[in-house]
Automatic annotation (TrEMBL):
Residue span(s) of domain USP: 1-135
GO CC term (a single one): nucleus
InterPro entries: Papain-like_cys_pep_sf, Peptidase_C19, Peptidase_C19_UCH, USP
Gene that encodes the chain: LOC101672300
Keyword field: Hydrolase, Metal-binding, Protease, Thiol protease, Ubl conjugation pathway, Zinc
Family of this protein: Belongs to the peptidase C19 family. USP12/USP46 subfamily.
SUPFAM superfamilies given in the database record: Cysteine proteinases
E.C. code: 3.4.19.12
Protein name per UniProt: ubiquitinyl hydrolase 1
Molecular function in Gene Ontology: cysteine-type deubiquitinase activity; metal ion binding
Catalytic activity: Thiol-dependent hydrolysis of ester, thioester, amide, peptide and isopeptide bonds formed by the C-terminal Gly of ubiquitin (a 76-residue protein attached to proteins as an intracellular targeting signal)
Entry-linked Pfam families: UCH
Amino acid sequence: MCWRKQEAQKRMRVKKLPMILAPHLKRFKYMEQLHRYTKLSHQVVFALELSLFSTSSDVVQMDRMYDLVAEVVHYGSGPNPRHCITIVKSRGFGLWFDDDIVEKRDAQVIEELYGLASDVSKNLESGYILFYQSRE
């Protein structure tokens, strides 16, 4: 089985759940035939609320609820040149941070940046780093 590609899974065990959780969605894939990375523009629906539990047997707190509070969004069709913006939820609306510009937006803007389900050729913006805050 050496030197052959095969299906694999990666798993980590968590002993202590964090106050801020920042999962990173891998939106790029290396294409061997092109010898470069290409953007994965498919729709990734992420939860606005997240319930996590510890996978360690010697843990103090077994589970924790999280709320999505921010998202980093990549604009563009490939990994370079890149431009990222950040959206932060704040008291019922969203704050859109784009370099030195900050705009107030509707809070639903986070959900709009899941990625497109149908016409992937038009999907140039998609969230790839999510920030969840613990309710505790």
